[in-house]
Design a protein that fits this description.
Blueprint: H1 7-29, H2 36-43, H3 47-53, H4 57-72, H5 81-97, H6 99-110, H7 115-141, H8 151-168, H9 177-189
Protein name: TetR/AcrR family transcriptional regulator
Organism: Hamadaea flava
Keywords: DNA-binding, Transcription, Transcription regulation
């Protein structure tokens, strides 16, 4: 008896080829220059295949970014808040320095005028903020973080400098950048009756 090809596997292979092709093109030529036609040609599929799964190139690239963020910049929980923040923010900085950074930059720019990009970017950011706040809430319960700290503001204070320097390219970003940022941040976030972070 001959084995029939699994259409689900074939579809998944095509889907991954499309996502990878879109990300590679974005890193090579920039978001604005990427077209659905170019993605289809690079992935070896018809344009209609892409539109069957996604409404636009932004939607394809958002799927790529969701996958990359989960793989490379998830939020750890070792019981040491400072170490966990350093691990996560350093991983995020490395992500920004990779091809995924070019994709994310393009999506952030596109989000200013493209509703699909704006909705997707907002959803990814909200997910990341929820994960950060969950970790920060736990730290408040173990007295690693002031109980009266506004967690939305804490997230902005921690991640804002990295986004600002990376997006606006106002300064070089050495490997120790987030270590220096967090040392400054924790001066204000530490509980008042505990010693300074080392």
């Amino acid at each position: 008896m001959s084995r029939q090809p699994d259409p689900n596997r074939r579809n998944e292979q095509s889907r991954q080829a499309i996502v990878t092709a879109a990300a590679d093109l974005c890193a090579e030529v920039g978001f604005a220059a990427v077209t659905v036609e170019a993605i289809a040609a690079r992935a070896g599929v018809g344009k209609q295949t892409i539109y069957r799964w996604w409404p636009s190139k932004a939607a394809v690239l958002l799927e790529y970014m969701e996958r990359e963020r989960e793989r490379a910049a998830g939020f750890p929980d070792t019981g040491d808040l400072a170490a966990d923040l350093l691990t996560q923010t350093t991983a995020l900085q490395r992500l920004f320095d990779s091809d995924a950074g070019a994709v994310w930059r393009g999506l952030l720019i596109a989000a200013q005028s493209d509703d699909v990009a704006a909705d997707g970017v907002r959803a990814l950011l909200e997910q990341a903020i929820v994960e950060a706040k969950q970790r920060l809430t736990k730290a408040q319960g173990t007295d690693e973080l002031r109980s009266d700290a506004d967690l939305d503001m804490v997230v902005e204070i921690i991640f804002g400098p990295l986004y600002h320097a990376w997006l606006l390219r106002t300064r070089p970003l050495p490997k120790a950048y987030m270590s220096d940022v967090l040392k400054l941040v924790f001066e204000g976030l530490k509980p008042r009756d505990r010693p300074l972070i080392r």
